[in-house]
Automatic annotation (TrEMBL):
Residues 2-58 form the HTH lacI-type domain. It holds the Pfam family Peripla_BP_3. This is LacI family transcriptional regulator. It comes from Amycolatopsis acidiphila. The keyword Transmembrane helix does not apply. Keywords: DNA-binding, Repressor, Transcription, Transcription regulation. InterPro entries: HTH_LacI, LacI/GalR-like_sensor, Lambda_DNA-bd_dom_sf, Peripla_BP_I. GO terms for molecular function: DNA-binding transcription factor activity; transcription cis-regulatory region binding.
């Protein structure tokens, strides 16, 4: 790689002059022809400042980290997290920021502890994933390192900056719609795993329809006989938690099909953040990625901002919800 010394030798100037020109220091007086000659040589050689050296000189490098607590980054366009990456990349490019993907947790013998420490090579870091290892993240927060979590976080006594979705209001709206159509016997199916997004969805469900029965399942399997029994008992609607795994929705959809029931004729089906053809609401993943980048840049530059933000989830009419069938 070309160095400033190489530029100085070819341009016929001192290395200090090259440093002043490439550092953009206009306070130092010099001939415009000298400044132009240095820039032309740097361009010809393809000189790129070393990010660590730039960081030491200016305290910022315009590098933002992106860290996930999953084993790999989502690369499939069907992955629920993929739109987040699209939003992150779009906004980073718009703001003139480069991205570093931290992948240390996928290697042999890797740990979150060591990988999270490495995020300090960036100006700040975006985090996303269903769970948070609290100790290493707490150290970053306590040290004042700028970070933003994509998704609401309640850990560390609410000190983690985040951009999330307003699942409480959106879930309540779905249940309010079902009740308005005449549904009274409703089952809410969710995964057994605990996370703030799960807590928020269930809270919204029970705020709008306190009589709703909550059913927890493990994995993408639900006995079709269970669904048939619900219908016999007068259940007219099933609401399902939407997650990055989609396990609850997969289980319910398979069980309904295996029980030879149709939606919405036999049973209305709503998903709290799921496929676009299913009634419920959409999670603004792409916008969450964009907003998270903007919030992180605000924190890095110490601009006045709101460190915890919730975005509206647009409702999805879908084709799987209707009025209860007269029995």
């Amino acid at each position: 790689m070309p160095r400033q010394a190489d530029i100085a030798r070819i341009a016929g100037v001192s290395q200090a002059t090259v440093s002043v020109v490439l550092g953009g220091n206009s306070a130092v007086r010099m001939a415009e022809s000298t400044r132009r000659r240095v820039l032309e040589v740097a361009e010809q050689l393809g000189y790129v400042p070393h990010p660590v050296a730039t960081r030491l000189a200016s305290a910022r490098s315009n590098l933002l980290g992106l860290y996930t607590f999953r084993a790999t980054f989502p690369t499939d366009v069907a992955d629920s997290y993929y739109p987040i990456l699209v939003g992150v990349e779009e906004e980073a490019a718009a703001l003139g920021q480069d991205l570093i993907l931290f992948t240390g947790t996928s290697g042999p013998g890797a740990s979150h502890e060591a990988a999270i420490r490495r995020t300090r090579m960036a100006d700040g870091c975006l985090f996303f994933g269903r769970h948070v290892p609290e100790e290493p993240v707490a150290r970053l927060v306590d040290s004042g390192f700028p970070l933003v979590y994509i998704g609401r976080r309640a850990e560390l006594d609410g000190r983690i900056p985040y951009v999330g979705a307003d699942y409480v209001s959106a879930s309540a709206e779905v249940l309010t719609r079902l009740k308005g159509l005449g549904h009274r016997e409703i089952r809410y199916v969710r995964e057994s795993d605990e996370a703030p997004s799960s807590t928020d969805r269930q809270r919204g469900v029970l705020e709008a329809a306190p009589e709703t029965t909550v059913v927890r399942i493990d994995g993408p399997e639900l006995d079709p006989g269970t669904v048939r029994a619900w219908v016999r008992d007068g259940v007219t609607a099933v609401v399902v938690e939407g997650t990055d795994t989609g396990a609850a929705y997969t289980a319910v959809r398979k069980a309904i099909d295996a029980a030879r029931l149709s939606t919405p004729d036999d049973l209305s089906l709503a998903v709290l953040g799921g496929p676009p053809e299913v009634s419920g609401f959409a999670v603004p993943m792409r916008e969450m990625g964009r907003r998270a980048v903007r919030l992180l840049v605000d924190l890095v530059t110490e601009r006045q901002t709101t460190p915890q933000q919730l975005l509206w989830c647009p409702p999805v009419a879908g084709s799987t919800v209707g009025a209860p069938r007269t029995r």
